[in-house]
Write a structure and sequence with these properties.
The chain is mainly β. It has one domain: Acid Proteases (Cathepsin D, subunit A, domain 1), CATH 2.40.70.10. The chain contains two helices and nine strands. The longest helix has 7 residues. The model has no long low-confidence stretch (mean pLDDT 94).
Length: 125
């Protein structure tokens, strides 16, 4: 499991983000969701993050800039994600599926992200 913490920009606002390959999905707290397009899920979604079970009925389209590069991905909206090792509240948990989609690789030894595989264009077959 690889983890890197970094601020990303959502609608011009910096949001404290944990890039975590141990998390499959992406999550945002309600305060960040206010900046996004949200929708009601067809039924409640149960998930285990931050040491507990969370339920949500809201999803969002996370559009942000990671190191100046645009990303767009699906996220689940939760009340709280948790705090990082320094005690700072995590506003976005950026999961493995979104990292794979956008070619983002955490480099935890250097506490940075590797975006050398960020797609310049999508080619679909």
């Amino acid at each position: 499991m690889s983890r890197v913490r970094e601020a990303i920009k959502v609608d011009g606002r910096e949001c404290w983000t944990l890039f975590d390959t141990g998390s499959r999905n992406t999550y945002v707290v309600r305060e960040v969701a206010k900046l996004l397009v949200t929708s009601k899920a067809l039924s409640p979604i149960k998930t285990a993050i931050g040491g507990g079970i969370k339920r949500t009925s809201t999803t969002a389209v996370l559009e942000a800039k990671v190191e100046g590069r645009r990303i767009s991905t699906h996220a689940l909206v939760v009340d709280e994600i948790g705090k990082d090792e320094a005690g700072k509240p995590i506003e976005i948990l950026f999961g493995a599926l979104a990292m794979q989609q956008w070619g983002i690789r955490p480099v935890p030894d250097e506490e940075r992200l590797d975006l050398t595989h960020y797609p310049r264009e999508f080619v679909e077959f």
